[in-house]
């Protein structure tokens, strides 16, 4: 099939049959109190021993003066605020002065509370009730805001004691969807139940672990499905090999080398997995649309964008050779204005590879 003009801003689209190899290319211009790591009242067999040890080691939480952690004691709102602020590694030199009548500059954890108010993680009301026990519904909101976990009304989790109209429903269900928080049983969440210090430690560690997954681009929030999806590349080694071979071709033509772009790679992973999951092979996804639509949906900035795809190609070297044998694919590979690239591979149920290489200029 020759070059097809799909829309005015498309430079080219092609489908190439190479024995059992299939390739396509596309391009589009422009767009508390004492620090310690062990607690005398937390046995190694305690269900939260690992998490408690972690928050103590990192100084997110501290022991009481007698060396106890009091794992079954409800955590106070001020203690929780301090632990969250410390785990976020944010500046405590906030200029914000909350209007809380029950919190003063001499109050414990005053600086931490001010910092969270400034970031809108705590709501600045007349009263904060710093010594009051923290409830499960309140920690759900605090954690989603602190760690920037997306909150929406489309959730798989549902609890009979958190009805429609409950102010914390979306916070609770969104946090449960990503596995940070759970119900007290399969049907109930107990939103008014107090959070113990052991439970809080576990929630904090889970939140940080999920945040790490997001930062390392192992998951991404899909604004269409309203859900976090996995975005781990099938093989970083194979992807890096493609970039190495591509840059060799560009070097031969005295062109600038393409820089590996982790954000663009994540978009490529989403496209490769989408082709496998939805059983198609095309630049135009039946779900996400064209590559530039996909890039925009996942907040990837660019001034120009191109895509090469392939399937049933066994190796990185074979993929690059197949693309270089096709004029439209080669044009993307050797386009002078491209500066960045991301490569992804996904495998279907039969072990066949789907390849996606995205190019961009910034």
From TrEMBL:
<dbReference type="InterPro" id="IPR014044">
    <property type="entry name" value="CAP_dom"/>
</dbReference>
<feature type="domain" description="SLH">
    <location>
        <begin position="155"/>
        <end position="218"/>
    </location>
</feature>
<protein>
    <recommendedName>
        <fullName>SLH domain-containing protein</fullName>
    </recommendedName>
</protein>
<keyword id="KW-0732">Signal</keyword>
<dbReference type="Pfam" id="PF00188">
    <property type="entry name" value="CAP"/>
</dbReference>
<feature type="domain" description="SLH">
    <location>
        <begin position="35"/>
        <end position="98"/>
    </location>
</feature>
<dbReference type="InterPro" id="IPR035940">
    <property type="entry name" value="CAP_sf"/>
</dbReference>
<dbReference type="Pfam" id="PF00395">
    <property type="entry name" value="SLH"/>
</dbReference>
<dbReference type="InterPro" id="IPR001119">
    <property type="entry name" value="SLH_dom"/>
</dbReference>
């Amino acid at each position: 099939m020759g070059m097809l003009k799909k829309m005015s801003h498309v430079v080219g689209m092609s489908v190439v049959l190479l024995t059992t190899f299939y390739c396509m290319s596309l391009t589009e211009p422009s767009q508390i109190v004492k620090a310690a790591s062990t607690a005398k009242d937390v046995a190694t067999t305690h269900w939260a021993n690992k998490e408690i040890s972690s928050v103590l080691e990192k100084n997110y939480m501290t022991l009481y003066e007698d060396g106890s952690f009091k794992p079954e004691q409800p955590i106070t709102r001020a203690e929780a605020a301090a632990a969250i602020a410390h785990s976020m590694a944010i500046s405590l030199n906030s200029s914000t002065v909350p209007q809380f009548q029950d919190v003063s500059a001499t109050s414990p954890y005053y600086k931490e509370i001010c910092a969270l108010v400034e970031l809108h993680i705590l709501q600045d009301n007349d009263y904060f009730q710093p010594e009051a026990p923290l409830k499960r519904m309140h920690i759900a909101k605090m954690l989603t805001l602190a760690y920037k976990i997306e909150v929406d009304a489309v959730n798989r989790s549902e609890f009979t004691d958190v009805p429609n109209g409950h102010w914390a429903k979306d916070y609770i269900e969104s946090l449960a969807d990503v596995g940070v928080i759970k119900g007290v049983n399969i049907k109930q969440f107990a939103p008014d139940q107090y959070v113990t210090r052991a439970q809080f430690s576990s929630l904090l560690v889970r939140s940080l672990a999920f945040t790490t997954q997001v930062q390392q681009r192992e998951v991404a929030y899909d604004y269409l499905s309203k859900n976090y999806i996995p975005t781990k590349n099938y093989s970083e080694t194979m992807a890096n090999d493609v970039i190495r071979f591509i840059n060799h071709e560009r070097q031969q033509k005295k062109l600038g080398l393409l820089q590996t772009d982790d954000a663009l790679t994540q978009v490529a992973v989403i496209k490769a997995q989408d082709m496998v999951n939805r059983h198609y092979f095309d630049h135009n996804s039946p779900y996400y649309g064209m590559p530039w639509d996909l890039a925009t949906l996942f907040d990837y900035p660019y001034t120009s964008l191109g895509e090469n795809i392939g399937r049933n190609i066994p190796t990185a070297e074979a993929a690059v050779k197949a693309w270089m044998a096709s004029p439209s694919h080669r044009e993307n590979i050797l386009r002078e204005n491209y500066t960045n690239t991301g490569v992804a591979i996904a495998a279907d149920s039969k072990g066949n590879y789907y390849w996606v290489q995205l190019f961009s200029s910034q």
